[in-house]
Design goal:
single chain, 64 residues, mainly beta, 8 strands, 59% strand, globular, Membrane-binding protein, MORN, repeat
């Protein structure tokens, strides 16, 4: 993904140390905008984030 001033910014994918993955938009190092947050078990949160926090427009899809 993209970086600005040493922080994630723009479109990109990041794998966290616990195995969680976020693919989507970043602003000033925080998830911000549309994206998909995938947990190690395959469950996903799809929707919108603002300043690193999910908002009401997020859909949870559980893994089989």
């Amino acid at each position: 993904g993209n970086w600005r001033d040493g922080r994630k910014h723009g479109q990109g994918t990041y794998t966290f140390s616990d195995g969680d993955i976020f693919a989507g938009e970043w602003k000033d190092g925080k998830v911000h905008g549309n994206g998909t947050y995938t947990y190690p078990d395959g469950s996903k949160l799809i929707g919108k984030w603002k300043d690193g926090k999910k908002n009401r427009e997020v859909k949870l899809i559980l893994s089989d």
